[in-house]
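dude i think i finally got it to work??
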Amino acid sequence: MSRFRIGMRELLSLSLSIFLLSGCSGKQNQADDNAGIDLAPEARCLYLADGDGYRIARMYAPDDTVHPVATYLLVPRDKPLPDDLPKGTVVRVPLASTLVYSTVTAEAMKELGSISSVRGVVDKQYFTQPEIQEGLKNGKVTDAGAASSPSAEKIIAMKPDAIILNLYEGMDVAGVDALGVPLIKLMDNHELSPLGRAEWIKLIGSLTGKESIADSIYNSVAANYKRLSEQTSRLGRRPKVLTENMYQGVWYVPGGRSFQSRLIQDAGGDYFRKDDKSAGTLALSFEEVFSKGRDADIWLLKVYDKELTHATLLKEDARYAGFKAAGNGGVYYANTADAAIFNDMVYHPDRLLEDYAEIFSSFSSGKAPNHLRYFRKMPN
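look at this
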């Protein structure tokens, strides 16, 4: 497994999708598109279709499915601009030089075979791809500074074809938006369905000229996900599942309508906050979690670059001893320094589902899990 370094910014944004808005309720086509069928039917916040000489990509905010956040017209760079283009930002594809904000996007581009088009990054410490780290050393990849205050001078100097970022609530992109470079605002973090989120790889493929590869990847993921979820639907007793742990006095957990909650349910688990109506992250006190999660059979959590034992768990907080899972061997943890869980969970939710399903089915059968990709059982 590849080395994986991640900080709390990525932990909360990728694992818990920090936003408190509800998910997309639909997407609207518009008559002036002259576009064909929706190529991303599972992704409720993305409309992707082919027009005459272009591909249109329209992103929707979770609270407004009529007025798009952004519309992009992807036109082959070796073709003239078509007549009568609908309104939108023209992006010449495939992208040859891209500034990327997220290691997850970079990982998707690597899988598609287009990692060489990543010519700049922000928050370089979070990128795990060896190609990018080597490029930062030899100058082929530009370090554009922090995501909160990227260097306009460096971005202008690198002359990117586009900037790709994930748009989060309250995010200020006015500075980079004013540079005149197409700003592609991914909204995949607003999806409620794991497969809907995974389908955004089709947009990455459309931007990089790897449409057929992206379709193949998604189709394989979707087939595997549906096969696994159908198998887990036949489980007997569904274990009650608790997630995460305290961080600086707050216990952050996925809301009951989040894609993480959906993953647990699809894997045969009974998420301890399933009745919650939030799609994003819940910031809870210890007492709030304990009241609903103390009788959980399975406890899934993440650590960075350390082994977890019963003793080290209680050393973090002695109150953890009150949780049923801590005493009955039901704690499983992913060491994010080794397991590429954050890079995989967006575009390969089937891999995480497989781990969850193995853990939950082992609880039902009483047998030890056969193979886990990310998680390991905490020894007593």
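The chain has two domains: 25-222, 236-377.
im so relieved honestly
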